[in-house]
Amino acid sequence: MAIEAGFSECGLVALPYAGEDRDASRFSEWVNAGYAATMHYLTRAGEDGKLLRSRVALPFPWARSAIVCYANYHAAQPLSTDPAPAGSGWIARYAWSSRLDHDGARKPSDYHKVLLKRLKTLEARLREEYGSFESRAYVDTGPVVERSLATAAGLGWTGKNTCLIHPRLGSFGFLAVLLTSLSVEDEMASFAPLPYRCGSCRRCLDACPTGALFAPYQMDAARCISYLTIEHRGPISPDLMAGMGRQVFGCDICQDVCPWNRKAPISADPDMESRPELVNPAFEWLAQLDEAEFERNFNGSPVRRAGFHGLLRNAAIAMGDSGLRRFAPLLEKWTEAADEGLRSAARWALEKLHSA
Ligand code: B12
Ligand code: SF4
Ligand code: SF4
Question: In which band, very low, low, confident or very high, does the pLDDT at 190 lie, cut at 50, 70 and 90?
Fold first, then answer.
């Protein structure tokens, strides 16, 4: 039914699952170490002080099963680690997505919306089959640790880059979770967790430019370029800007170097087709966007989350990294910008260009 609803794969796990104690303490340790940075929604606790996300039963005591779906978004375009045209940046491939609307016009699409609709279709099919039950459908934004549920549901294993890796589809896939009050019969026990298959590989750890993957399976999000370019508001510290390279939105490096993605099939999802202008975007194009143009290009796209000034800040850092002096006049102008994050990035970038 999940595949009929448009997902590439699906797993199922009875709740609470074996290994939940271990995952709950890993999550709490992660939050308590401060690795969630400014993502305060991850650190919400109940009245008893327990972190809401550490166990499904805390926010959803009625939940007896989790159906975890995987939607492939792998694209046949270059890797972030391939040589690229001078003066071009990198937008994470999950954000390249678009679809044709009813009038045949191509519009940005966002996996949150696309996949939530599919989960709702699945939910409705299950109701036809099993009658009424309690449920919640989440794509990214619910109070659950989706990758922990996905591994428990047998979809894949956690890579040393912390991503969920599906043995056939790799890690360029979104997760979507349907919690239900339906209990799982014994015959469904075939969805057993898979063994970890990274072996002695550590390419992702070695490739991470900011040291965010400080140990296998462990990430300090405060150092991750994905966090810095998408979630973090305001100025970025110079030691981190130095490692950001040409990533202007998100980061794919620790997945682009992963051997499990080399032979992963390319997605043919009509709701998530690549927008060519977002693949290796030219800094000149990004820099000339005004707020109205930003909205026109990114309304309905995941890129909107960075915000107009956030995207310009990221572009300024990448321009500084490019070594191309033609960006100096623009950066000079941005040193006077009202936005503090953009101003400080422009100052850092100019200094970098002058010292190159
Ligand atoms: C916060 C968040 C981020 C943060 C923090 C990421 C992180 N690693 O925690 C930032 C902004 C950095 C981020 C980046 C990205 N994200 Co994000 N993110 C989330 C979010 C909302 C919560 C994740 C979370 O709870 N993190 C806390 C840590 C503790 O949890 P975790 O990494 O999931 O870790 C568990 C396992 O690693 C496990 N573990 C397993 N084995 C082992 C072994 C050992 C020894 C240890 C210690 C731990 C351990 O312990 C943890 C707890 O159980 C989820 C959606 C959701 N609701 O779950 C999406 C999600 C994880 N992100 C997603 C994506 C696509 C991305 C990016 C690829 C986007 C991009 N291209 O820029 C990058 C990937 C970076 C990376 N290497 O992880 C997908 C991942 C799909 C997949 N195949 O894994 C998710 C599931 C969203 C979705 N619905 O599809 N993300
Ligand atoms: S997404 Fe980029 S910065 Fe974040 S852990 Fe992976 S390689 Fe490092
Ligand atoms: S690059 Fe290697 S260590 Fe990292 S997730 Fe992939 S297989 Fe595992």
Answer: low
pLDDT tens per residue across span 227-252: 999 999 999 999 999 999 999 999 99
Q: How far are the Cα atoms of 65, 156, 175, 287 from residue 121, in angstroms, in the given order?
A: 18, 24, 16, 40
CA 203/CA 298 separation, integer angstroms: 33
CB neighbour list of residue 148: distance below 8 Å, 6 or more residues apart: 23, 27
Contact 120, 137 (CB under 8 A): yes
Instruction: Select from 48, 67, 68 the least CA-distant residue to 58.
Output: 48
Ligand 2 pocket residue status of 92, Cβ below 6 Å: no
Q: What is the largest CA-CA distance in the chain?
A: 68
Q: Tokens for 324?
A: 């191309």
Mean pLDDT is lowest, of 190-204, 218-232, 321-335, for: 190-204
Residue by residue, DSSP assigns 124-192 as HHHHHHH----EEEESSSSSS-HHHHHHHTTS-EE-TTS-EEBTTTBS-EEEEEEEESPPPPGGGGG-P
> What DSSP designation does 42 have?
G
Residues 162-180 pLDDT 10s: 999 999 999 999 999 999 9
Q: What is the pLDDT of residue 45?
A: 96
Best of 162, 166, 203, 225 to mutate for ligand 1, by most ligand atoms within 8 A of CB? 162
pLDDT at 189: 57
Query: Is 339 among the catalytic positions?
Result: no
Query: Which atom of ligand 3 is least distant from the CA of 165?
Result: 5
- Could you tell me the residue ranges of all domains in the chain? 9-75+92-190, 203-261+273-355
Determine the CATH number of domain 203-261+273-355: 1.25.10.10
Residue 208 Cα to ligand 2 midpoint, Å, equals 5
Give the bridge partners for 68, in sequence order: 11, 177
Residue closest by Cα to atom 64 of ligand 1: 174
Catalytic choice (23, 110, 140, 186): 140
Q: How far apart are CA 106 and CA 91, in angstroms?
A: 19
The CB of 213 under 6 Å from ligand 3? The reply is no
**Alpha carbons 169 and 163: distance in angstroms, whole number:** 13
